[in-house]
Amino acid sequence: MVATTEERSEFALGWKVLFASVLGVACGASPIPFNVIGFTVEPLISEFGWTRTQILMPITIFGIIASLLAPFFGSLADKYGVRKVALYSLLAFGISFGMIALTPAAKVASTLYIYYALWVLVGLVGIGSTPVSWSRAINLWFYRHRGLALGILLMGTSLAAIVVPKLAVWGIENYGWRSMFAIIAILPLFIALPLGYFLFREPRTDERPQAITSATGHLTGVTLGSALKDYRFWLIWVSIAIIATAFGGAFINMPAMLSDRGLEAQTAASVMGVLGIGILTGRIITGALLDRFWAGFVAFPLLCLPAISCYILLGGSITFPMAALAGFLLGFAAGAESDLIAYLTGRYFGMAHYGKIYGMLYMPFGFFSALSPILYANVRDTAGSYDPVLSVAVFAFVAGGSLLLLLGRYPDNLPEASVSNKLATEAS
Fold it and tell me: How far apart are CA 291 and CA 147, in angstroms?
């Protein structure tokens, strides 16, 4: 008798796809812009005299555009298959991100708007290279070990946080901030894209875990309309919005915060590397815990950790060990949150319309992560310190985590996909 997917190792079947997806996430539009832009603050102030708020505005522009487009890209992955969406978007992201190097040098008003326009392009084409796409494939390959697999997938953002800040600082110091964008663009174009082309795909019908399909072999899950009527969707949405608002600005402004407290750029880059290790650790530990315990019990304590980070960052000078601890705890919680979005989407709403629903839940993550850096920077520009916004963030992290305690048990049965969705899935 032929062994079922459950009787075989999910990792034996899906490791190639998982490996390609990790690199796709690492080199995609989710982590790279956020790991780079904080190191452009001083060079752009020096060259153009722009304010911190002006300099960090592109990450808000990028993030808002990307978050609004997330449900659209998710629906494309549902309809046409995730491989096409992920690889084409990865290609477009690499090209558009490298094009930021073409920002003119003239100190005129139009330079700022050209710089912003280049970031708009990144937002328009890059969202398909984020976990919105890659996580769909992983959810289709894994069920019993889904939490761990998603944790491994999202290690890609950890790898980016470890490698990209150092590479960005090296590029800026040796070739200037413009060339740095072209250097970073090598990662999606010449590392992730070739590997994705050869290794990344969705499972065939017979390779899917039986738990995500009906008796007839079709994917199960609620429609987007049904999800929007479910209180659990909105609990997750609001929790993500609160945590993202508190986290995004702390992450992007971390180099500037540390500079204010007397640490040099290379030391700040080292702290960002520790933050990346925290994200990596948070991914794996959270993923493993989600496979064993209910998500609410896993999420609440982990999402309270960055409140400690914000408390550490308050005040005057700071030592490297304390800065590294703040970075680690902040990263650990970030790893937990990203795992949770993909995991909760699959467990509460199923896979039949995963891309659309995940896209809607990614929207507050992208939108408020993008808005947050400007809020933090504006507080710094007006108050002369990050302390007021860090004080608010302490309470925001605790509030956002507590909402997930209200989700209730996972649903036992999910409906079979509609006829149109069956055909689209089979065609992909």
Answer: 5
Provide mean pLDDT across the span 308-323.
84
221 strand-pairing partners:
350
How many domains are there within the chain? 1
Range of the domain at 150: 13-427
- Return the DSSP state at 213: B
Please, where are the H alpha helices in 142-253?
Answer: 146-153, 155-175, 177-187, 193-199, 224-228, 231-252
Task: Give the pLDDT confidence of 355-402 residue by residue, as tens digits.
Answer: 889 889 988 988 888 788 888 888 888 888 888 989 999 999 999 999
The CATH number of the domain holding residue 94 is 1.20.1250.20
Q: What is the dihedral of CA 23, 341, 69, 161, to 10 degrees?
A: -40
Tell me if 156 is assigned to some domain: yes
- Count the helix, strand and coil residues of the chain and give each as a percent rounded to the nearest 5: 80, 0, 20
For residue 39, the one-letter residue type is: F
Coil, helix or strand at residue 263: coil
Task: Give the global pTM.
Answer: 0.77
